Amino acid sequence: VPAGRLLLGATPLGQPADASGRLAAARTLTQLSAGGAVTVSPHIVPQCSLHSVAGAVSVALGMHGPHLGVGGGPDALAEGLFAATTLVTGGGDPACTAAWLVATDWDEEPALDADGEAREDPVCRALAVLLEPLDTPDDGGGKLAPLSLSVRTPRIVVHGEPAHETSGGLVAFARAVAMCAEGGALATWTVTCPWGAEIRLSGRQRPAPVRLREAA
Amino acid sequence: MSGCVQRHREDREPVVITGRAAVSPLGTDVGTMLDRLFAGTSGVRAIAVDERARTAAEQFAAPVETIPTPAGIEPDVFAGLDRLEQICLAPLVAAVADAGLDRSAGGPRIGLVLGLGAEQLKAWELDYLAGGGRVFESRRDATLVHRLAGQPPPAGRAATRWPWDGPGSRWAGSMPAWQEAATS
Q1: CA separation for the pair A67, A137 (Å, rounded)
Q2: Each residue of A152-198: pLDDT tens digit?
Q3: Would you tell me which of B62, B116, B163, B168 could form a disulfide with B150, CB atoms 3.0–4.6 Å apart?
Q4: Is some CB atom of chain A closer than 8 A to the CB atom of B11?
């Protein structure tokens, strides 16, 4: 993507705020009770809130578009996918021609001790996906993208209970991206928003190799 | 890793503001708040240390004194919500009423985007200071949007939330990067 056109929609999904934020919040609260207000870092709000990872990514990469932190809860992946597709297809800045979706998730939600330290060694995963709009909905606009995302909204919406699974969402999505891109047996993968919309990931013609980079 | 999303709309539709509401230290309706704002009134005042402050240093604040109960919600039900839910729900319901949207006849589907970056941090803090330990628990709490968004009420109880029937999500932006974008 040309640098001059690059607009960022970095959407750190919930768990950066809930997880790294929760670890930091637990440590801060225990320190506050033991040592008073002088022990509280001024970075707790700017660095551990929902927006902080998106802001850090956009500044670090020198991006020039809107950036948002989205989610913060059990349905963060679906919310982030929906928000990212909205950024590049539905509204906002017409010059926003691409969006990075940065999703993070814990394998298992960390359990903390009384000092706010994680009892075990939690693993946090991250996945970055670059999204660009197709020129037309039907013919693919001439692009031969390995993957496509589409959103199908329900006619009747009934808000359900939020998802309560504690792991697997991001891992499943990453595997689906790889498998769809490779053109294997898995051609589609879907995730449902709590308000009923279905976000579908589909493999497209001429699959391109996809490299996954995983950090723990 | 890259992919494409299907573009459904070529023409960008205009967005207009049709309903307004406010719950603020300067007032709990838009007119009062704007009048006081343009008159230079400040919502910040000295407060009693034992009123809201947790430390002696917190002697000044911009408190919201009362949060009005939204139309259509029973006062005792509203009183049972936590304060963050109240301060979001009250202006949301009022803004929809101000827009003249008739929900009784079905009406248009309404979504909700809540701009709130530190919801959990505040919830954990208040819980901890009240003697709780939610911040240490290995679980993910539903966000405020989902708590507000029409979840099924317990059996035998009326719905306690206003039923949004469109997309709902919590978004937060970062000022430093907006500044970076504006000055680049």
Answers
A1: 25
A2: 887 665 555 555 444 458 888 888 888 877 766 667 888 888 778 88
A3: B163
A4: no
Residue A129, Cα to own-chain centre: how many angstroms? 9
> How many Å apart are CA A118 and CA A166, to the nearest integer?
16
Measured in angstroms, the CA of B108 and the nearest CA of chain A are apart by 11
CA distances from B4 to A10, A82, A150 (A): 16, 13, 9
Which chain A residues are within 8 Å of B137, Cβ to Cβ? 111
Q: What is the nearest CA distance from B166 to chain A, expressed in angstroms?
A: 7
Q: Average pLDDT of A117-130?
A: 85
CA dihedral A33, A37, A40, A44 (to 10 degrees): 100
Counting one residue from A and one from B, how many pairs have CB atoms under 8 Å apart? 235
CA triple A73-B63-A19, angle to 5 deg = 20
What is the spatial distance between Cα A123 and Cα A215, in angstroms, rounded to a whole number?
A: 9
Q: Is B106 left (phi over 0), alpha (psi -120 to 50) or beta?
A: left
Q: Cβ B124–A25 below 8 Å, yes or no?
A: yes
Strand partners, A70: A13, B171
